[in-house]
């Protein structure tokens, strides 16, 4: 196929990167376009937005390393599929929003991490957790490939957007649900709206009320921001309906309005969230 990117061409990308070059090989643009065509997540973008998204995805592929773990081969289609999803939240923010990390790694399946922590009494604890994604402060981003592959559906679940949202949040320090805001945005307005909505959401989860938003969002304010970011890009009408203040703030932060471009997804069409015991994203 003439528009497929051969491994030699990706070697060419490495070579361009070493030289600090910016030119995107036409074959890469063509491959990105082909992958983008099949993604419901990218429906409704204007020609300008789509062009910006493809270029940012290409820049990410040139600037970041994507590594397969456990002997998993990562082909060009996989790289493009990941890069397009990574680029969507930053489409109108540019490469500076991605400057905190250099590498994304892909596991062939959900992966196990071992967490160690100390409780208030000073006792050490250790537990294993199965994750589909994880964002480390200043990188890398870690993903389960099957979950990346299934993420571009409009179902409110997107592990790539989730971890990228954490990375944006961590541009000014550890993740806390309060990313650095743009000029003209008010920090106090942001904090008040998010804190109030978070507390309210935690109360509904505590009362066992099941809704469309993944209860994992009640874990802490950083997860609340990341999970709502996923929903903002996939099921924006539900976010706008149930969290109108947050929708307005997310629109200002991401400088996009997904509700204006995406089809409405009915709440009862959404799949129930996966069981919370064990599997999640970090
Ligand atoms: Zn998370």
Automatic annotation (TrEMBL):
Tell me yes or no: is Transferase among this UniProt entry's keywords.
yes
Report what the protein is called: Phosphoenolpyruvate--glucose-phosphotransferase regulator
| Transmembrane stretches, start-end | none
Ordered alphabetically, the record's keywords are: Pyruvate, Transferase
**GO MF annotations, alphabetized:** aminopeptidase activity; metallopeptidase activity; transferase activity
Q: Which domain of life is it from?
A: Bacteria
Give the CC-aspect GO terms.
Answer: cytosol
């Amino acid at each position: 196929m003439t528009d497929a990117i051969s491994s030699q061409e990706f070697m060419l990308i490495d070579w361009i990167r070493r030289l600090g070059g910016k030119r995107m090989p036409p074959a890469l643009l063509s491959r990105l376009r082909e992958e983008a065509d099949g993604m419901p997540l990218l429906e409704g973008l204007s020609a300008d937005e789509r062009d910006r998204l493809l270029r940012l995805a290409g820049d990410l592929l040139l600037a970041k390393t994507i590594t397969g773990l456990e002997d998993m081969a990562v082909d060009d289609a996989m790289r493009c599929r990941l890069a397009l999803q990574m680029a969507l939240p930053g489409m109108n923010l540019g490469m500076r929003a991605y400057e905190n990390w250099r590498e994304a790694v892909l596991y062939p399946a959900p992966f196990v991490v071992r967490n160690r922590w100390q409780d208030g009494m000073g006792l050490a604890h250790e537990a294993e957790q199965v994750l589909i994604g994880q964002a480390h402060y200043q990188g890398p981003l870690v993903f389960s490939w099957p979950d990346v592959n299934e993420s571009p559906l409009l179902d409110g679940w997107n592990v790539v957007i989730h971890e990228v949202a954490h990375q944006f949040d961590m541009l000014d320090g550890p993740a806390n649900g309060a990313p650095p805001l743009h000029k003209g945005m008010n920090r106090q307005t942001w904090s008040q709206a998010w804190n109030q909505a978070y507390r309210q959401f935690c109360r509904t989860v505590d009362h066992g009320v099941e809704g469309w938003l993944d209860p994992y969002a009640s874990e802490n304010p950083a997860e609340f921001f990341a999970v709502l970011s996923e929903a903002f890009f996939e099921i924006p009408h539900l976010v706008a309906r149930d969290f109108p203040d947050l929708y307005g703030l997310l629109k200002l932060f991401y400088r996009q309005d997904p509700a204006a471009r995406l089809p409405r997804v009915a709440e009862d069409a959404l799949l129930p969230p996966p069981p919370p015991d064990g599997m999640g994203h970090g």
